[in-house]
Amino acid sequence: MTAELIAKEDIKEYKLIHAPESHVHELRYKLQSALRLGNEFKSKSLITFQTEEGPKKVETTVWSLTDAYLQLKGGILIPLYSLLDLEY
């Protein structure tokens, strides 16, 4: 999968849509780990998500996690339904 790397602040410029296949269940452990890494060690994760313009990715710390969203610094939300991949 080829995804364009964008700045975290640019996420709001894109319309996030459902990924072709849901990856939430398989990424649940990685999401929890990324949250811990971000909060305890200030480590960044590479988050790939689906937009209307195609896959995009951002390198940032995960601040919080709910049942529906990843929250990044600055109140930026990424809906879990749009997630394609997560690396750290």
Please report which band the strand proportion falls in: under 5%, 5-15%, 15-25%, 25-35%, 35-45% or over 45%: 35-45%
CATH class, named Mainly Beta
Average predicted confidence as pLDDT = 95
Spatial shape: globular
Looking at the structure, the CATH topology is: SH3 type barrels
How many extended strands? 7
Radius of gyration, rounded? 12 Å
Largest sheet: 4 strands, mixed
Helix content: 10-25%
The H/E string reads: EHEEEEEE
Number of helices: 1
CATH architecture: Roll
Low-confidence runs: none
Strand order of the largest sheet: 1-3-2-7
Distance between the termini: 17 Å
Structural class: alpha+beta
What's the structural domain tally? 1
Name the descriptors:
single chain; 88 residues; alpha+beta; SH3 type barrels; 4-stranded mixed sheet; 3-stranded antiparallel sheet; globular
